[in-house]
Amino acid sequence: MMIGKWVLALGTVFVLSIGPFSVLSGAEERELQFGSVAMDVPAEMHRRLTPLTRYLSDELKMPVTLKLAKNMPAAIDDVAEGVVDIAYLTPVAYIKSHKKGNTRLVAKTVTKGQASFKLMIVVREDSPIRTIDDLKNKTFAFGDKAALLQRAVVVGSGLPLESLSSYKFLGHYDNIVRAVLHGDFDAGILKDTKAYQWQGKGIRILYASDELPPYNIAASGKIDDAVLENLQAAFLKLDAKNPEHKNIIKALDKKYDGFVATSDKEYDIVRKLIAPFHK
What are the sequence ranges of the domains in the chain? Predict the structure, then answer.
């Protein structure tokens, strides 16, 4: 009888002792989901983001796996609602997700040494168009229809879209360059790096926006503060002078040099530009 009680007591001690261990193991096995706007086909986005998720898994000591969204609205909802823990977002996507679910910034991208960018209205080098007013009743080429910031910059320049004779969405910046060079459109909008690439080679810059905040890494409002701090530290640690880190950064985008800290206030200029489209 005494032996039976002793075994029962031992069993109780054993169960109690493994309880906390089991909870700890569960916490250690927690997984972070990484989402993204759909800038390429899924296979290409996996190729671009997988080196980064592997790096984060090592740095955070927890698995980080991809959960790609099918489009921009889905990517915004995923991070705003906590379906994913972190996401690679455009400036407008961040603003929308922050408004909807208190998404918080982790870091912003650096492109060719710049932690900001400009959008530029361009015309053919030999075009008679010299001012924004000259674009009224002319044709205009935009990129992706989902890229609201492009239209916002054009309207912000003093050119209402309804003042154009017509405009179309051509998808990519390279398509815009070709269309303007070939005379298919009177003008178009390009990211600064693409505009500078073609400046003096058939393209002339007519108008440049103010400095705009770039793509960013954002975290769900539901993520733990300590995890958020660790995430930020991991991104800021990436150094393009380190060959291993350089491969991770360049896999995401060949033009990127790394990441720097950012704040919600930096995105106020974008909020101001897109405000007319939400009235």
Answer: 31-111+213-262, 119-208
Are 236 and 179 contacting, i.e. CB atoms less than 8 angstroms apart? no
CATH T-level assignment (fold) for domain 31-111+213-262? D-Maltodextrin-Binding Protein; domain 2 (3.40.190)
Q: What CATH number labels 119-208?
A: 3.40.190.10
Structure tokens at 33: 């989901």
Q: How far is CA 220 from CA 105, 217, 225, 228, 246, in A?
A: 9, 10, 11, 9, 27
Instruction: State how far the Cα of 10 lies from the Cα of 16, in Å rounded to an integer.
Output: 10
Q: What beta strand segments (E) does 94-235 contain?
A: 104-111, 119-124, 139-142, 166-169, 187-191, 203-208, 216-219
Task: Tell me what pLDDT residue 9 has.
Answer: 38
**Identical fold at 31-111+213-262 and 119-208?**
yes
**Residue 73, pLDDT above cutoff 60:** yes
Burial code (b: 16+ CB inside 10 Å, e: under 16) for 102-125 equals ebbbbbbbbbeeebbbbbbbbbbe
Q: What is the pTM of this model?
A: 0.81
User: How far is it, in rounded angstroms, from Cα 75 to Cα 26?
Assistant: 27
- Assess contact for 82 and 100: CB atoms under 8 A: no
Task: Bin 216: left if φ > 0, else alpha if -120 < ψ < 50, else beta.
Answer: beta
Task: Give the whole-angstrom CA distance, residue 53 versus residue 33.
Answer: 9
Q: Rounded to 10 degrees, what is the CA torsion of 66, 67, 72, 76? A: -100
Q: Where is pLDDT greater, at 13 or 132? A: 132
Count how many residues are written for the chain.
Answer: 279
Query: What does the pLDDT average to over 189-201?
Result: 94
